[in-house]
Design brief:
Radius of gyration: 17 Å
CATH architecture: Beta Barrel
Order of helices and strands: EEEEEEEE
Distance between the termini: 18 Å
CATH class: Mainly Beta
Helix content: under 10%
């Protein structure tokens, strides 16, 4: 009955589930009426994805990339919830190079505050990676988020994560 899922059998094709951690650099430009401010800082990253690979060279998934930072002595997150795809450039080996990209909902909030307040917008990422052993890869992504609710914020980021992927 469960044989048709083809997951966790050593082939990339089928159900996929993954996560990772890393670090990055964000440049946030905020404007409100005539006030503008630019903030550049290093961030801690978490990365989560779940989806399906119709072949050994293509993955289609839902992705959550979150940049954790501190602002006014409180944790603050900039996140991207995206529909994404990854293409592996070599299907003859278990390791190798890949390219990825996705777009979706972007938001910024203080996650442990009650009530939770967030500002929302649109974002996308483009990147590349290298799977150095089966199930493990390193990714370098460029991230753009545009928050349009209340204050306007444009965020550009360079993100590096180490990830594990179950397939």
């Amino acid at each position: 009955m469960y044989n048709n899922l083809y997951s966790f059998d050593g082939e990339r094709k089928g159900f996929i589930l993954g996560g990772g951690i890393g670090a990055g650099y964000l440049s946030n430009s905020t404007s409100y009426n005539s006030f503008s401010h630019t903030d550049n800082r290093a961030v801690f990253l978490t990365n989560f994805k779940i989806g399906y690979a119709p072949s050994n060279t293509l993955e289609i998934y839902c992705l959550s990339k979150v940049a954790w930072r501190e602002e006014s002595n409180k944790p603050n997150i900039l996140g991207l919830l995206a529909v994404a795809a990854r293409v592996y450039l070599n299907n003859e080996t278990e390791t190798g190079w890949s390219i990825s990209g996705g777009f979706g909902y972007s938001g910024i909030s203080e996650p442990f505050e009650s009530p939770l307040e967030s500002r929302n917008g649109f974002g996308f990422f483009l990147g590349g990676g290298y799977e150095f052993i089966s199930h493990w890869n390193v990714e370098l992504d460029l991230l753009y988020s545009k928050i349009t609710e209340r204050t306007k914020m444009n965020s550009f980021g360079l993100l590096l994560t180490v990830n594990v992927l179950a397939f």
